[in-house]
Amino acid sequence: MTASKGYNNPFLKAHQKKPMPILGTDTKLSHLQDVANFVQPIGYPGPATQAAFDALNQHVVTDMFTNYCTGKKSADDAIAEAVKRLKDSLSKFK
């Protein structure tokens, strides 16, 4: 934690004791000590699989929101494209 200047948050609860190095001493960052309560691991609610990481690395969900928010696609079209891309990721890793 200290060497990364607070960027690498521990994912094991035993390492999340407060005050955390860096995050616990900076009032602007102290709320980040509880970030584990608000994020889910890749693949949630299922396991972290190669397909889940592939979808993350291909920015499928980010692109879906970007395409809709920038007006490039309707909500239905953006979702349909994301579903196709997610299925492509699943088919790569049986």
Protein model, in words:
The chain has helices at residues 50-57, 60-69, 75-92. It starts with 49 loop residues before the first helix and ends with a helix. The chain has two domains: 1-39, no CATH class; 50-92, no CATH class. It has 94 residues and is mainly α. Helix 1 (50-57) packs across helix 3 (75-92) and helix 2 packs antiparallel against helix 3 (75-92). Helix content is 38%, strand content 0%.
Detail the topology: elements first, then pairings.
Elements: H1 50-57, H2 60-69, H3 75-92
Helix pairs in contact: 1-3, 2-3
Please count the helical segments.
Answer: 3
Query: What's the rounded overall pLDDT mean?
Result: 89
| Largest sheet properties | none
Strand residue percentage = under 5%
Total strands: 0
In percent, how helical is the residue content?
25-40%
Round the Cα radius of gyration to an integer and report it. Answer: 18 Å
Q: Any idea how many domains?
A: 2
Summarize the structure.
The protein is mainly alpha-helical and 94 residues long.
Name some characteristics of this structure.
single chain, mainly alpha, 2 domains
